[in-house]
Amino acid sequence: MPKVKTNRITCPAGWEVIKDTLAALDAKMREAENDPDDGKRKCEALWPIFQIAYQRSRYIYDCYKGNQISKELYEFCLEQGYADRNLIAKWKKSGYERLCCLRCIQPRDHNFGTTCVCRVPKHPREEKIVECVHCGCKGCASGD
């Protein structure tokens, strides 16, 4: 969640380019946080929040990689909490370009000390559809 904005923080040049999209994603995040979880499994209630956090981080990272925003604005977004710095750091490594969340690669959160089922490429799996228990991802392996 981004820090509380005050008048003392000055936004770098180019903030107007991404301001509207980030405001829309923040509104979606608030809606997902306040959404009742009636009839859902306990783990399913958090899936929309993980997906919106992924969208926000991916948007800022793609804008930076596409030279739409400056490095100064990119660092400002990371410092203010608009994007997940650790997730973006993983995206820069080979094999993690499409990683959905950091919990999918932490062995302590899974059986047998491995990674999540969404990290397995689709072709070695059977034809059944699987969803990540943590974030609801259907497959974020870079080999898909």
Give an overview in words.
InterPro entries: BUD31, BUD31/G10-rel_CS. One of its GO terms (cellular component) is spliceosomal complex. The protein is an all-alpha fold. It folds into two domains: 15-92; 95-144, no CATH class. It is built from four helices and no strands. Helix 1 runs antiparallel to helix 2. The longest helix has 20 residues, at 15-34. It starts with 14 loop residues before the first helix and ends in a 53-residue tail after the last helix. The mean pLDDT is 87.
In short:
The chain is an all-alpha fold.
Number of domains: 2
What is the residue-averaged pLDDT? 87
**Low-confidence spans: pLDDT under 50, at least 5 residues?**
none
| Principal-axes shape call | globular
Tell me the major beta sheet: none
Q: Per DSSP, what share of the residues sits in E-state strands of 2 or more residues?
A: under 5%
Write down the secondary-structure element order: HHHH
Q: How many strand elements?
A: 0
Per-chain topology:
Elements: H1 15-34, H2 47-65, H3 71-80, H4 85-91
Which key features would you list for this structure?
0% strand, 4 helices, globular, 2 domains, mainly alpha, 144 residues
